[in-house]
Amino acid sequence: MIEIEAGGIASTVQDLGRTGHYHIGMPPSGAMDRYAHTVANYLVGNDTDAATVEMTYQGITATFRDDAVIAITGADMSPSLNGDPIDTWETVAVDAGDELELAFATEGARAYLAVAGGIDVPEVMDSRSTYTLVGIGGHEGRGLEEGDRLPIGDAPAERRELVGTRIDDEDVPDYANEDTVRIVLGLTSYRLTEEAKETLCESEWTVSSEADRVGYRLEGPDLEFEEREQPFGAGTDPSNVVDLGYPIGSIQVPQQPIVLMQDAVTGGGYATVGTVISADRGLLAQRQTHKSVSFESVDVDEAIDARRDQNARLEAIRADIEGEN
């Protein structure tokens, strides 16, 4: 059991998400940075879809009521155990009564706390992920608060043998300097002028203060739309189209871009002119407010290769941790 003493700014329980319900308007939710979430689980011997605690900008303070094996990955929030600093991207032993404290993020925006056995909250629609907009999943469908008690799943005693395990430095993302995310242009990029498409891909954008699990609103140059005759069923704004489904990571352009993230609506009537590829969504989720970000256009084959490469990298990390290499 983990007893929360301070919930941070926006801390929720997340796993890999609530897939298979997009057609009824249910977004997947799930970890915003799947790479960091997955590595944290590997470091404590969990399956990839075990629930972790996702902490945004400021971490939790919590007391463990049982012995545990933990790992913290993602943004650097200077974690400490009973006041002593502990390393991130490394497996750590915790004794009953120990207090874990994380501070404000210095690099990156989101950190992940994995515990051997996983955070054992009830599943809702086959997932433990929190979707706060409708109040389901996670701990009571909301962010963590003082006094919350999170149950931990059963884990074999052998997990303690992982303590001290650390992934190679080359596998730790450099969140401060990874400011380019790859996109595939479409579905309705035809609404932008050719000059506007170049502007989208060649400009430096700034993450605004409106950046959360629903969407990342970016600030930068205005984008020009092609002249048109308003189609039946679409709104009057140049950015309006006839309603369509929104891919996760799609770039909506009600003038300035908004990248739709894990908790976003699944469809609507704004033009979505590109999609951040799945391998890079975690990098965008780690860009802090007021930091810059740029887009690099790739094709679908390159996007699939990038996802395959990331999966292979994760599999190599898992094999190293489990001693298969």
UniProtKB/TrEMBL annotation:
Recorded superkingdom: Archaea
One family name in Pfam for this protein: CT_A_B
PANTHER family: 5-OXOPROLINASE SUBUNIT C (PTHR43309:SF3)
Protein name (database record): Biotin-dependent carboxyltransferase
Carboxyltransferase domain boundaries: 23-314
Alphabetized SUPFAM superfamilies for the sequence: Cyclophilin-like
Species of provenance: Natrinema versiforme
Keyword annotations from UniProtKB, A to Z: ATP-binding, Hydrolase, Nucleotide-binding, Transferase
InterPro entries the UniProt entry points to: CT_A_B (IPR003778), Cyclophilin-like_dom_sf (IPR029000), PxpC (IPR052708)
Keyword Ribonucleoprotein recorded: no
GO terms, molecular function: ATP binding; hydrolase activity; transferase activity
